[in-house]
Design brief:
The structure holds three protein chains of three kinds.
Chain A: E1 3-17, E2 20-32, E3 35-39, H1 46-53, E4 61-66, E5 69-71, H2 76-81, E6 84-87, H3 99-104, E7 110-111, E8 115-116, H4 118-131, H5 147-160, E9 165-169, H6 177-192, E10 196-201, H7 204-210, E11 213-218, E12 221-227, H8 233-241, E13 259-269, E14 275-285, E15 289-293, H9 300-307, E16 315-320, E17 323-324, H10 330-336, E18 338-341, H11 345-349, H12 356-360, E19 371-372, E20 375-376, H13 378-391, H14 408-421, E21 426-430, H15 438-453, E22 457-462, H16 465-471, E23 474-479, E24 482-487, H17 493-500
Parallel strand pairs in A: 3-10, 3-11, 6-9, 9-10, 15-22, 15-23, 18-21, 21-22
Antiparallel strand pairs in A: 1-2, 1-4, 4-5, 7-8, 11-12, 13-14, 13-16, 16-17, 19-20, 23-24
Chain B: H1 2-13, H2 23-41, H3 45-67, H4 70-76, H5 79-105, H6 113-131, H7 134-158, H8 163-185, E1 200-202, H9 212-222, E2 224-226, H10 227-245, H11 247-257, H12 259-264, H13 269-295, H14 307-317, H15 322-341, H16 351-356, H17 358-368
Antiparallel strand pairs in B: 1-2
Helix pairs in contact in B: 1-2, 1-3, 2-3, 5-9, 5-10, 5-13, 5-14, 5-15, 6-7, 6-8, 6-13, 6-14, 7-8, 7-13, 10-11, 11-13, 14-15, 14-17
Chain C: H1 6-11, H2 18-29, H3 32-51, H4 56-67, H5 78-110, H6 118-134, H7 141-169, H8 174-193, E1 221-223, E2 231-232, H9 234-251, H10 253-263, H11 265-270, H12 275-302, H13 307-311, H14 316-326, H15 331-347, H16 360-379, H17 381-398
Helix pairs in contact in C: 2-17, 3-4, 3-16, 4-15, 5-9, 5-12, 5-14, 5-15, 6-7, 6-8, 6-12, 7-8, 7-12, 9-10, 9-15, 10-12, 14-15, 14-16
The chains are: A alpha/beta, B mainly alpha, C mainly alpha.
């Protein structure tokens, strides 16, 4: 078994960001040749901790010990020098260069002191690939290889620099289940070679599968560090979530009416022109919330973008109130009665430099009372904004405050106010509570239920299974761009989880 | 294939004319267009559009030429003169385009090339005048360009200012500084007539290359070129080696594509960009030095007259690659060389300025993506903030 | 769940659109920053003057007088007052194109686009305006003027629209395409009125100029001598355009969309705005402002177009960039920027600057240096933020810690 002396110790690490204590007196240690999982929800402080270890942030307090010696990393290159490698969630690869070039970048083999020895680079990459049983073509361009392979290139980058500590930040978030199990095989090989691995994740199953020890972070604090052997799903979940976010939404039984949104056999390509939605069909009725559950990257974003008109489907139909809207642009869709709470409120939901009033009017500005024949009445915009700010309890500013200066929760309230006030028939809510605090989450949930009770159809897409279960009247599970099952909200987490990971593929439940 | 056919069609109609008639070139050009269309259908858009363009050019040329008289054609198309002039006109562009390539490959847009050239032109002349030696003149010219590059680097890298605004400012500044100093130092007299200029390289042996016609042609074109023209080819090859064959080049390009990735493996993004932008200033300045010391033997206000922008166009047209950019410089140089030839024919004179517009039209078409889209380095123009 | 993981990233955004940074900068320092920028540029210009052995204060004084702005002082009287009046009229004439080319830059900026094609759009406008002025001799004056201005405005708009169209459809960067369009306009314009060109004045084949515009197409001169560059009503048209600009940006749905697209194209698209359409319109409207500048110049005081104007004088359109940047893309700011640069350019012209104080051929270049410095400094908004933050940091450090300092240096 592994050697119990720690190669790495973090002692009393604290880091404060404006308004947030991201790490609070965190202790963490890593033994030689172990896989130590860092488990926690989004925002628990995992990434901050690792960025401190990797020299990207400076801790406010605490110390880092490497092989017993105290170290202080001023930059990522210090960390690399000391043998710490990191595989970022967003790959740090250059698409137009080859695998070998990406691996050796910064520590290139040379001929005559200056010339890049491309052949030596490729040879070393091949050797490394053989040692660790990767299959990667060193002379391929990174942009031409798949995501799983790109991740291996990232791992090789670290190994090439003689890393003996490897940090993997949410490595499976971008992988298919098959790719993920390949990755685990590689990690086991690395462990055998004596490499110590920190595995950051918020997925219980995979942590239990791969890790030797598990440290749970919650709200910047270490809750517990336990050996994986003997740890249970329930125990870890409790430690991870605590008791304060048990999401229970008060709501009456749904009273579904006629179908409002119908999606038939939809095919959609993603940015890389790969088909990520394969013949998906679904239906949302008036007065119900339909939740789409699934692991990130199974076509949810593309589905939402196709429904709201931001992405052209290649095949299939979308109908709102029986009217075909498949290839319309967002403007017509808004007019046809589709409301949209975008996944990324900073990039899509709001114009951050606009005032709250202007943001509230992003649809309304082209309708009478706020404008006529292209002439705009800013006064009316402000009057209306004042009313909505009250109705939706937006705090931290008035109509003329710039949206960018509001807190996340209040920004989302502005988005919700705007979308609900434009009286849509169907509301598409994508990750509506991402990054919000508990109070704001409850508020968003209440508003969605209210919209439902007012007879609107709500399509909720979320990565938080808990949110899906507590809000939805019907749950559809999406896997690899298809709906693989329909469930009632009473379905157990295991049942849903199994479907979400493809365990139930092929047994489509009739709607 | 299509490209070759199209070019053949163009060549056919030009004197000494092989075929006097529209039919043959038009047929050839049509074939070129067809080839191009096939290539496009076969998913190789770039080449295909090239062929189509060549074909269209062929038809156009055929129509124009057959309507012109033989004597006029011969007056305009004196090949050795044109090729010689082409090499001369291409040289300042080559220097500046290579300079621009370093800067943009590292992720800093440099529309201040024009200003950097102008600085080089003035300080090259001034340096040569004061020191009495042209090598020192070149050196001083290069240094002045580097200084301007340093200014651009500081504002666009450290202060993360908008690089287009910065480049525009550089152009104003260079125009003002050189104009001011020129008037202050030389006034109305102009730069001295005995300015030590960069010598030409005589290659007399070229004429003895058989066959005789070829030998004479080579000598007329290459036999008496300025040293800085030959130097520009060395610089070109060196630039290619550095950018695409050395570790340093890999790092420069990585910084221009994905600075964060470069940073995480310990490459100094700021360092690479500083070096590249300063080198860019020096290289552009060499183009200016060639104008004042190698070509005109004098300096005059705003003497670069937009060549920095043509160089930028050549860089884009050549897709940010050394030999692509050089090819574009030759093409643009060819257009510039051909334009004055129009003066030899009274009735064609007016078209000279129209001809000058061709490089810009071609670049506009290239940017629009008709002849294969020009895609800049991914992080070109993006300021980088360290974490 | 608050968002600790997001916060640090949000502080150091990797790709910030220019418009967004610009807005940040606008909030950061009120009117103080452009003022500071201008003063800094003048001080540095003064140092250049000093270094070359002249008196900067006298020089600036003399430039000020040369611009005619001393006419505003009641104590200037007699012959000096007449000269000042003439000079001020010329400064006013210069303000017309500067305001309009400034607006051409400012409007595009609001949409997140950098229009450095003011020069080409101006040339297209001036050529069109000239030809409209030459033709249509039988049409009554006001109608003739209107047609000429409208045609030039439209032509400028089309020229700018090309760049907007390319940006909107194939994503070609507007900076590159406008540079190319500038040079295409220069050479095509040169061809049109150059030797043997179709629009050249054929009665003087040796001179590359256009024919003279019809007398009834001249703009009315309301101040000064109509034959010696008195100030014409084009001045009021330019001022009116400032108002139009403000209304367009602040009081129309078009302006609302343009601003939204400028700040966040993605959010604008999500909200149902046509991003491509706005890119096109913004560039077209920008070009229209610049095109109008060309018409007003030709109908107001040039009356015939020569090649020099096309090749050199049109470079003044670049000054529009400095005007817009200094004026922070607002209507009032653009007006003030235009006053500053018009005064500077006119005050340093050969005719107006006292050669005993400072040689005008140097002064013209001094103007360019100052202009370059203004653009350089104003582009570096971070410089100002940096200095600002530095000051705050120093302040914080100066405050003695009330409690025992927790962190040792």
């Amino acid at each position: 078994m592994e050697d119990p002396t720690p190669v790495l110790e973090l002692r009393g690490i604290s880091k404060q960001f404006p308004g947030v204590l991201a790490n609070d007196d965190v202790d963490f240690d890593l033994r030689r040749g172990e896989i130590h999982a860092l488990l926690g929800e989004n925002g628990a402080g995992k990434s901050t901790l690792m960025n401190i270890l990797y020299g990207l942030y400076k801790p406010d307090a605490g110390e880092i010990r490497l092989n017993g010696k105290r170290v202080s990393f001023g930059s990522a290159s210090d960390a690399i020098q000391a043998g710490v490698g990191m595989v970022h969630q967003h790959f740090m690869l250059i698409p137009v260069m080859t695998v070998a070039e990406n691996v050796v970048l910064g520590t290139e083999p040379r001929r005559g002191g200056v010339f890049l020895d491309e052949r030596a680079a490729e040879r070393r990459v091949s050797e490394m690939a053989r040692t660790f049983r990767f299959s990667v073509d060193p002379s391929a361009l990174v942009e031409d290889i798949g995501v799983g392979q790109q991740q291996r290139v990232e791992i090789m980058k670290a190994l090439y620099r003689n890393a003996d500590i490897l940090i993997l930040d949410e490595p499976t978030a971008v992988l298919t289940p098959q790719e993920a199990s390949d990755l685990f095989e590689i990690l086991r090989t690395l462990r055998r070679e004596g490499i110590s691995i920190i595995f950051i994740s918020h997925k219980l199953n995979e942590v239990l599968e791969i890790a030797d020890r598990i440290t749970v972070l919650r709200r910047g604090r270490v809750i517990e560090t336990v050996p994986a052997a003997g740890a249970t799903h329930e125990g870890l979940a409790r430690a991870m979530v605590g008791r304060d976010v048990l999401l229970r939404v008060e709501k009456s039984a749904a009273n579904p009416g006629a179908a409002i949104l119908t999606v038939e056999n939809l095919h959609v390509l993603d940015d890389r022109e790969l088909e990520t939605v394969h013949g998906l069909s679904l239906e949302v009725k008036a007065g119900e919330i339909v939740g789409i559950a699934g692991i990130d990257g199974n076509g949810q974003s593309e589905l939402v973008e196709a429904i709201v008109g931001l992405r052209r489907p290649t095949e299939g139909r979308i109908l709102v109130n029986g009217q075909v809207i498949t290839r319309d642009d967002p403007k017509h869709l808004i007019e046809a009665g589709v409301g949209h709470i975008p996944e990324d409120r900073h990039r899509r939901g709001l114009v951050l430099n606009f005032t709250v009033a202007e943001n509230l009017s992003l649809h309304e500005y082209r309708r009478p009372t706020e404008s006529r024949f292209g002439w705009l009445w800013p006064r009316r915009m402000i009057t209306r904004a004042r009313k909505l700010i009250g109705d939706y309890d937006v705090r931290g500013g008035g109509p003329n405050t710039t949206a960018g200066s509001l807190s996340g929760g209040n920004q989302q309230k502005v988005v919700i106010a705007r979308e609900i006030e434009s009286e849509p028939d169907v509301l598409v809510a994508a990750q509506p509570t991402r990054g919000l605090d508990v109070g704001a989450i409850e508020y968003v949930h209440r508003r969605l239920v209210q919209a439902r009770d007012a007879g609107k159809g709500v399509l909720l897409v979320s990565l938080e299974l808990e949110e899906i279960r507590s809000l939805s009247d019907r749950i559809l599970v999406i896997y690899e761009g298809r709906i693989v099952g329909e469930y009632t909200p009473e379905a157990s987490e295991e049942e849903l989880g199994l479907a979400m990971t493809g365990g139930k593929r092929g047994e489509e439940v009739p709607a | 294939m299509g490209v070759a056919l199209g070019l053949l069609a163009v060549w056919l109609v030009l004197p000494p004319e092989h075929v006097r008639g529209v039919a043959a070139p038009v047929v050839l050009a049509a074939a070129a267009i067809a080839c191009g269309a096939l290539t496009i259908a076969g998913d190789r858009k770039r080449l295909g559009w090239g062929a189509v363009t060549a074909g269209v050019l062929g038809i156009f040329a055929a129509l124009v030429v057959t309507h012109a008289s033989v004597s006029n054609l011969e007056a305009v198309f004196t090949w050795s003169t044109i090729f010689g002039a082409m090499l001369i006109y291409a040289t300042p562009l080559t220097y500046a385009a290579i300079g621009g390539m370093f800067s943009e490959r590292s992720g800093v847009v440099n529309i201040g090339l024009e200003g950097m050239m102008l600085m080089g032109a003035f300080f090259g002349a001034y340096g040569a005048d004061k020191t009495g030696s042209w090598p020192l003149g070149i050196l001083i010219g290069i240094l002045s360009g580097c200084v301007l590059g340093l200014v651009h680097a500081f504002f666009s890298i450290n202060l993360r200012a908008d690089q287009i605004v910065g480049g525009t400012a550089i152009n104003f500044l260079a125009l003002g500084i050189t104009g001011y100093l020129y008037n202050d130092i030389y006034g109305n007299r102009g730069t001295p007539t005995d300015l030590p200029s960069v010598p030409n390289v005589h290659l007399g042996f070229l004429s003895s290359i058989p066959p005789r016609g070829l030998g004479n042609f080579l000598e007329n074109v290459l036999g008496d070129l300025n040293l800085m023209i030959w130097l520009s080819y060395l610089v070109l090859i060196a630039a290619w080696l550095i950018l695409f064959r050395t570790a340093l080049g890999l790092r420069i390009r990585s910084v221009g594509e994905h600075p964060r990735a470069a940073d995480t493996v310990g490459i100094s993004v700021y360092g690479m960009r500083y070096g590249s932008v300063i080198a860019s200033g020096g290289l552009a300045a060499m183009g200016g030095v060639f104008l004042s010391l190698g070509f005109n033997n004098s300096f005059s206000e705003n003497m670069t007259a937009g060549r920095g922008f043509i160089a930028l166009a050549a860089l884009i047209f050549g897709r940010w690659r050394p030999f692509g950019a050089f090819g574009a410089c030759l093409l643009f140089g060819f257009a510039s060389a051909l334009a004055p030839q129009f003066q030899n024919v009274q009735s064609w004179q007016t078209y000279q300025s129209l001809f000058e517009a061709i490089p810009y039209i071609l670049t506009l078409i290239a940017v629009a993506g008709l002849i294969g889209r020009s895609i800049p380095p991914a992080a070109d123009g993006q300021p980088y903030a360290k974490q | 769940m608050s968002e600790p993981a997001e916060t640090p990233e949000a502080q150091v955004p990797e790709r910030v659109p220019f418009a967004q940074r610009y807005a940040l900068w606008q909030r950061s320092g009120g009117i103080a920053t452009p003022l500071a920028t201008a003063i800094l540029a003048f001080v540095m210009g003064g140092m250049v003057v000093l270094a070359t052995g002249h008196n900067p204060l006298q020089t600036y004084r003399s430039i000020f007088d040369g611009s005619g702005l001393n006419w505003l002082f009641p104590w200037v009287s007699g012959a000096a007052r007449d000269t000042a009046a003439t000079d001020l009229q010329e400064t006013g004439l210069l303000m017309i194109p500067l305001i309009l080319t400034g607006l051409a830059v400012a409007f595009a900026f609001r949409c997140g686009l950098f229009n450095i094609g003011g020069q080409g759009q101006y040339i297209v406008g001036i050529v069109t305006g000239t030809q409209m002025g030459v033709w249509l001799g039988s049409v009554p004056g006001p109608v003739h003027v209107f047609i000429a201005i409208a045609a030039a405005t439209l032509a400028g708009g089309l020229w700018g629209g090309i760049a907007g169209f390319l940006r909107a459809t194939v994503g070609a960067h507007e900076v590159i395409s406008t540079i190319m369009l500038n040079w295409i306009a220069i050479w095509v314009g040169t061809y049109l009125i150059g030797f043997g060109g179709p629009l050249q004045d054929h009665s003087q084949p040796g001179v590359p100029v256009s024919r003279e515009i019809a007398p009834d197409a001249h703009l009315h001169v309301f101040w000064g001598n109509p034959f010696l560059q008195g100030l014409d009503i084009g001045f009021f048209i330019a001022l009116a355009m400032l108002v139009v600009y403000w209304l367009l940006i602040q009081r129309t749905t078009l302006g609302f969309e343009v601003r939204a697209v400028g700040f966040s194209p993605e959010a604008a698209r999500t909200a149902g705005m046509g991003v491509a359409r706005n890119y096109f319109l913004a560039m077209a409207i920008s070009g229209a402002f610049a095109g109008m500048a060309g018409a007003l110049d030709i109908l107001g005081w040039q009356f015939r177009l020569d090649v020099t104007t096309i090749q050199i004088a049109s470079q003044m359109a670049f000054t529009g960039i400095a005007v817009a940047l200094l004026g922070r893309n607002t209507a009032v700011g653009t007006l003030l920027g235009a006053v500053l640069f018009a005064a500077l350019i006119n005050g340093t012209s050969t005719a107006n600057l006292d050669p005993n104080v400072f040689p005008p051929q140097l002064a013209g270049n001094l103007t360019r240096i100052i202009q370059g410095l203004v653009v350089l400094f104003i582009g570096a908004d971070v410089l100002i933020l940096y200095v600002w933050n530095l000051r705050r940091k120093v302040k914080i450090r100066r405050q003695p810690p009330a409690a025992p300092a927790p962190v040792a240096e």
